[in-house]
Amino acid sequence: MNASAQEYSSIVAEEAAHFGKLAADWWDPNGSSAMLHKLNPPRLRHIRATVDQHWGGDSAAVKSLAGKRAVDVGCGAGLLAEPLARMGAAVTAIDAAPENVAVARLHAEKQGLNIDYRAGGVEALQGERFDLVTSMEVIEHVADPAAFIAGLAELLAPGGVMILSTPNRTPLSHLAMIRIGEGLGMVPKGTHDWHKFLTPDELSAHLGAAGLRVTDRKGLSFSPAAGFHLSDNLALDYFLTAVR
Q: Are the C-beta atoms of 188 and 182 separated by less than 8 Å?
């Protein structure tokens, strides 16, 4: 980051407060975070396939991230951090809402998982390095996307891999996430600001400016028959994979 990094904060107070109010309900698959529970299986499939390809791992191995350090930035109450820990990674997870971190710690303890949970933004991790950097559905909620990506890039160890996901700014995402998702109460109202969604090209440009190279783009689509699933269609939501 630049010389003003000490003063920079990725956290938008209103966003942190919004998600903090949902903390107690986060692990309820039928609660306010139900959509995230539905997103998690294809998300995990994509992460697993990506790390196996990146490090030449055995797709049948249970601990595919053994010996690796992973960080999940914007971890919520740990829906991704816990599976990463089960895959063998030494996991650090950070979130802007202290309420989420408290729930995450308690849930991990009950599962017998050792996860280093912290409250704060990406800037609080300065000086640390991780083999795997993830940030899922977060960049659309931060104060400055370019600075946020620069902060994530600083965390990436040599030979590491970064996996991001975010909604695309398209008519389809506006229909699905704002008009239907929030309009019908499937997602808590006020969760999204469609104008803050980034297109794949915009996010790729931020990654390039931070010295990273995008190696893969993958879509996350929805159909009544299959639910959320990986696809080549980036119009609703998408993943970007980047390396140094």
A: yes
pLDDT band at 85 (very low <50, low <70, confident <90, very high): very high
CATH of the domain at 181: 3.40.50.150
pLDDT class of 118 with cuts at 50, 70, 90: very high
Residue 237, SS3 per DSSP: strand
User: Which ranges of the chain does DSSP label H, i.e. alpha helix?
Assistant: 13-20, 34-55, 81-86, 98-111, 145-155, 171-173, 200-209
Quick one: DSSP state of residue 31? S
Pull the structure tokens for residue 175: 């229909």
Total domains, the chain: 1
Q: Looking at residue 60, what DSSP letter applies?
A: T
Q: Show Cβ contacts of residue 116 under 8 Å, excluding neighbours closer than 6 positions.
A: 90, 91, 92, 93
Task: Convert the pLDDT of each residue in 12-52 to its tens digit.
Answer: 888 777 787 778 888 999 888 888 899 999 999 999 999 99
- What domain range is 171 assigned to? 3-243
Query: Strands 69-73 and 90-95, how do they pair?
Result: parallel
